[in-house]
Amino acid sequence: MRLYFYRFGCLLALACFVSVAWIRSTPSDGESPAVADMQSLYARLLVAEDLGGQISRDLGNILEHLKNMSRASTITQPATTVKETIRQRMGDSGRQTLHQLSIDLYMPHLRQHPDSLVPNVVLGQGRHGVSMVLGIPTVKREKQSYLINTLNSLLYSLTPSQQQDLLIIVFVAEVDSDYVSSVAETIRKNFPTESQSGLLEVVSPSQYYYPDFSSLKETFGDSKDRVKWRTKQNLDFSFLMLYAHNKGTFYVQLEDDVVAKEDYYNAMKTFATREVSNHWLFLEFSQLGFIGKMFRTRDLPMIAEFFLMFHRDKPIDWLLDHILWVKVCNPEKEAKDCEAQKALLKQRYKPSLFQHVGLHSSLPGKLQHLKDKDFGKQTLYRPHSNPAAELNSSLKHYQQHSLTRAYKGEDFFWALTPVKGDFILFKFLQPLNVSNYMFRSGNIETSGDKFYNTTVEVLPSNALTQGREPDKHFIVIGEFKDGVAAGEIGEALQPISALRLVVHCDSDVWALLSEILIQVR
Fold this sequence. Notes:
Number of helices: 13
Helix content: 25-40%
Largest sheet: 8 strands, mixed
Radius of gyration: 36 Å
Strand order of the largest sheet: 1-4-3-2-5-8-7-9
């Protein structure tokens, strides 16, 4: 159709040109009626030429509109583009519209489903504008899930201000909607406050996001299952990076089977702020694989596009190294020069802030004994100098982790599963003026072993002098919230003869006290 209109316009223009040339070649002296008729015909042809040109332009616009409609029905929506499409208006010069590369060039199957890149936000409050975003991809594991322990470790030591300046995104890399919902519900149940505040988000991909993995080529000696696993990992990391790229300043890639050092957040933010003026692509807070890699969020679209471009070809840590090579390596120089240049684009923080703890890999049948030697030892308890007291508890401690050692600041107290009525009693040798107290349950490695539904109670000394039964006259002054009980004791209750913790319902987990502080005036 387009060729037809083009030929028609050319013939019309040629006819007009011949007519005009012939008329102009006719003498103007003594104009005859024939000449007048020809001049009239010339004027009409000029009008016809203008109308033909207008019709040709209108038809061209209609054809272009139909072409765009056809393209829209077969190519994914704007969400498929890694970067925004750059458009230039069509002008008389015939300039065309330029489109930057889009994801569907690397994943053609996405063209069949316009919404295939729309994330399924199962849990979240739309938080953005934070300093740091942590991305955690997770999958269904055959043996054991480490996700809740990983989240407990990341949330354990955060201050209220740090919680406001952080976003943790859990990307459930599965298309089974029931499984995705179950993960979100487990997170909501274990971390209700963090879920409600928007600190935690749970997202998953569309059911159409992943391609058919059956056509993948086996390369580098990897089995078909391993090639599929590493290819899917490339796609998972890319999706998560693109989702997170506009939510904060820095993005940190983690895995679902790690533990974090206490105060990791402050250490990372301080180091990133110090290095912000330097030219780096990523900072490393662990030496294992992709764990603890920090990127500027503005670089994520470029990185994700590179991963998608070669997602079928190599593992993701190799692809990240190739980005460095492309950026700074000169093929005409020696390999050691390349390594030196690449080292400038990545800065290593020591000691490592994250440790890999998972034994069973997300690749079925694979065992991982990876340990970061730079991680060092965790601080599993905080010692304090407490006043002399007689200690008693109905809880049975595990191995050497006794209440006596914990009270002296030599260890943490780790007890088997508490039941309703269990208690821990601190009876002072003489009545004391206690100004404040603090009990912290769980630690960085076993952060789930906390005290739940447990109160803090004191026995004023006047209850003993008045002949009352001591056990019936304890006064509740606090309770455990998110694993911590802390507060001050008023003057009206002083001096204090005893302090105790009382469990009010059966627990599903063991209980651990990593910090015991009873401060005397």
